Amino acid sequence: xxxxxxxxxxxxxxxxxxxxxxxxxxxxxxxxxxxxxxxxxxxxxxxxxxxxxxxxxxxxxxxxxxxxxxxxxxxxxxxxxxxxxxxxxxxxxxxxxxxxxxxxxxxxxxxxxxxxxxxxxxxxxxxxxxxxxxxxxxxxxxxxxxxxxxxxxxxxxxxxxxxxxxxxxxxxxxxxxxxxxxxxxxxxxxxxxxxxxxxxxxxxxxxxxxxxxxxxxxxxxxxxxxxxxxxxxxxxxxxxxxxxxxxxxxxxxxxxxxxx
Amino acid sequence: xxxxxxxxxxxxxxxxxxxxxxxxxxxxxxxxxxxxxxxxxxxxxxxxxxxxxxxxxxxxxxxxxxxxxxxxxxxxxxxxxxxxxxxxxxxxxxxxxxxxxxxxxxxxxx
Lengths: 260, 110
Hints:
The complex is a heterodimer.
Chain A: H1 19-27, H2 33-58, H3 66-122, E1 127-137, H4 145-157, E2 162-165, E3 168-170, E4 176-179, E5 182-185, E6 188-190, E7 194-199, H5 202-210, H6 215-221, E8 225-236
Chain B: H1 2-17, H2 29-49, H3 54-78, H4 81-108
Helix pairs in contact in B: 2-3, 2-4, 3-4
């Protein structure tokens, strides 16, 4: 270390050579043992510098001291807990969304069921199922609108859920009326023989048609014919065109109506 | 001239060989490098002062390196390794700065 001590002899600039010349002189290759040794030391120094620089670039956590490692660990823990919190929040959001969508699906299913039921009731949906097919032959034109209304009422009484007369769907607002010598239903003239399709319990309905003093007997007394056939599967295909009510408005009720 | 070339050669070798520093030497190498740099700058300054001596340079170089490494080693043993390393770096840095200042005054008269 004595090399860097302040010079004790001679003042800089008092020498006969300028500093640059002195440097040049010293840089001249000299074949002395000390110069070779200095060169060797220089090689080692360069090697060490390059090695250390490279090592420093390559080293990750291994070169850090304990306090720095603790700081890094703290940061990582903090970050991890924050991300955990994030993940929990997102999970909760996802759960809420998923359960919400299942609720939506259930509501949709319930709404669809109600729509189907109401569609059958209102005559806006085709219906199929077991039922009876009834044909009233009336070549004499004896069958009157009240008689057909009686037939429909009897069927309803016996549990018919969907009724079609001719190719007109019978709904709550349906009305029979005279049309010349014949009968019309909802403005559509019915042609003889009258064909009536009813979906419901076939056994009950056909029994209801045949009770003494009932529809069949009345029709036969008029000189018309009636045949009732039970079907395990028939389709009421006629549709009732729904009209928007002009005056009646629904009273909004909070409780959903039960399925009829 | 030859030592300067040697420095370049050493740098090149170190860069191309990618040597791994032994684990035991890892805390000491950076300090030893700083100490060696201090010795080099001291040597240049001695040249300009007209008091350069090859033998003194070599001895000061080696002793600088060894003492610096020893101080760090001692600090590690005492549990104050990082603080002592910092202290050594500060001291050597101040010496390098003063040596460079002296060299600058010699060469540029400023």
